[in-house]
Amino acid sequence: MSDIGTLALFNWAFHGLFLVALAGFFHFRGRALLLYFQQEEYDAGRFLRWFATNKAFDRWASLLVLAAYWASVLLPSSSPFADWRSLLLLSSAGLVLGFLKSRAILSQAKKPLVMTSRAKSIHLVTMVLVIGIFALVWRHIPPSTDLAFLIFLIWLQMPPLLMVIANLLLQPYEKKVREKYLAEAKIKLDNLSPTIIGITGSYGKTSTKHILAHILSANAPTLATPGSVNTEMGITRIIREQLEASHKYFVVEMGAYGRGSIARLCKLAPPSMGIITAIGKAHFERFGSLQEVVAAKFELAEYVATRGGLTFLNADQMPVSELIEHTNRLQSCLVFCGKAEGEYQTSVVLESAHQDENGLHLEIRFGAKDAKKPEKFDVPIFGLQQTGNILLAIGVAVELGVSIEIVRASIKSLDQTSHRLEVSKSRNGPTIIDDAYNSNPEGFEKALETLDMLATSSGRRILLTPGMVELGSEHEAEHARLGQIAAHFADIVLVVTPSRIPSFTDAFSKAKTDEQIMLEFDKQADAEAWLKANILPEDVVLFENNLPDLFEAPPRF
To answer: What is the Cα–Cα distance from 152 to 147, expressed in whole angstroms?
Structure first.
């Protein structure tokens, strides 16, 4: 091969290296950003606010490309670092470093990116937009100009915006696919006609669903939406893939993301009976006020009433003044469960409740005080806040015709709900209380009480928490209150992302004694590493909440 041919091949190799690095950069950067977009449920506004707040723009690739540009401008043309090959090599190094950063973020994510068909489509269209812009710009602007360098730097920062645009472009297609799946699910439900029980609430939905499905399964085949599946497409998928003719009951968790959410879910899976577990301060960030929360949750009761059904409510977790309008209008269609001395007349009454190392022990009365003696139930789960969920599940089961004897026997074998005050003990190891998926103000407080109850005289009470999210205007006040409570129930507090919850750390610091310790960590993994190195067999540890990647230390691309 001639010297000219060798030089040309050498030049092509430099260009090829640069293009491969460029493709790898946009592929992995796109997937890393898609991880956060997916955790924001593809909400463009929330995702872009997260991006801006956390300054999740590219740093390393842009800095090295900028260094390459400065070298070409500031160094004499005779310098080897001013040669275009050196510029390509330095830029390629920046791009490789950029995609390695993105790969590391993907590999370390607590909640991995799930490449669903929607995620794949968004990623593909984003890459098409990236390539299209590249081809369009470089066709009209010579790559050696100052303007080309400036556009290239801007281009490196464009993936989040292009991802949002890709999602918008795909909406007509996604709408058609969604309508097709919804139609199939509705036809299947019409044909199979199971008894549908809808469950919503500010918190307690998943636990109540788990308890009710367990009781009903002892009476007849029952299907419940798994885990925290509570959206339109999630429920649709369960109907299409798992609902069978043998299922007599279908228990559906219904999430509210604003007014109209529950109403849409009721049209998809029409409930003949409903449960509202609680109305409280969880998700204030989405709703803005308690009145909005009430209006959204009561869409379930409104719909069930049109079908002549009953909605069961936890009377001890209902704001009285905000409910007057709804309770007056729907009075005959509502069944309140709770303590006898509350604001509402309860039909399923909690006479007494206590917990010990074996779980909860309840006495429940059905109907008027002089009607029947209380029934006793032993439930092998923990947390006194669960009594309301148990009460609702038992009340609905009895209303559906399940005998008290079957309820009592079935609930004795109830499994703990994963990551919702799930207690695990080992003979020669510490006691672990896993409340990672269940953090709300009331649940947090009751979990701390459980931590204290399960502690031994020789062991330490250890709390690991990043605090709570989506409390809106109540964020600071609730964390301050719980920081004071934690000082009564925890010997060691491991705080993750302390900058998010300064009122909690301040309140704990002021209320604690000299013997109590608080340590701060940027990431959950760091706190868990400390725990692994320092935990003793007699200790009790409470994991209270585990934030998605969105809320931990911001990514540094």
So the answer is: 8
Number of domains in the chain: 3
- Please check whether residue 271 is in contact with residue 303, taking contact to mean a CB–CB distance below 8 angstroms: yes
Tell me how far the alpha carbon of residue 179 is from its chain's centroid.
25
Q: In the numeric block, which tokens belong to residue 12?
A: 């092509």
Angstrom distances, CA of residue 85 to CA of 12, 14, 21, 62, 449: 10, 7, 15, 18, 66
Domain ends where: 373, 389, 411? 411
Q: Are residues 429 and 407 in the same domain?
A: no
Whether 448 is covered by a domain: the verdict is: yes
* Sheet (strand 222-224) strand order: 222-224, 249-253, 195-200, 273-276, 310-314, 334-339, 348-356, 359-366, 375-379
Contacts of 537 (CB under 8 A, 6+ apart): 428, 429, 430
CA angle 238, 239, 244 (to 5 degrees): 110
pTM of the model: 0.80
Verify that 165 and 96 share a domain, yes or no.
yes
Q: Could you tell me if 179 and 233 are in contact, meaning their C-beta atoms sit under 8 angstroms apart?
A: no
Neighbours of 59 (CB within 10 A): 15
SS3 514: coil
How far, in Å, CA of 183 to CA of 518, rounded?
A: 54
Which residues, other chains included, contact 104 with Cβ-Cβ below 8 Å and sequence gap of 6+?
Answer: none
Range of the domain at 165: 3-171
- Helix (H) / strand (E) element for 355: namely strand 348-356
Same domain, 303 and 436: no
Does the residue 182 lie in any domain?
A: no
CATH number, position 251: 3.40.1190.10
223 and 271 inside one domain: yes
For 351, the 3-state DSSP assignment is: strand
Q: Radius of gyration (Cα) for the chain, nearest Å?
A: 28
pLDDT (tens digit per residue) in 337-383: 998 777 778 889 999 999 888 899 999 998 766 567 889 999 999 88
Our CA angle for 344, 348, 352, nearest 5°, is 95
Q: Are 42 and 118 in contact (CB under 8 A)?
A: yes
CA–CA dist 87, 92 (Å, integer): 8
The reply to whether 440 falls in a domain is yes
- pLDDT confidence bin for 5, thresholds 50/70/90: low
Mark whether 443 and 515 lie in a shared domain.
Answer: yes
Q: What is the pLDDT of residues 394-441, one digit of tens each?
A: 999 999 999 999 999 999 999 888 888 888 887 788 999 999 887 788
Q: Do both 255 and 285 map to the same domain?
A: yes
Helix 386-399 / helix 404-411 crossing angle, nearest 10 deg: 140
- What is d(CA 59, CA 247) in angstroms, rounded to the nearest whole number? 54
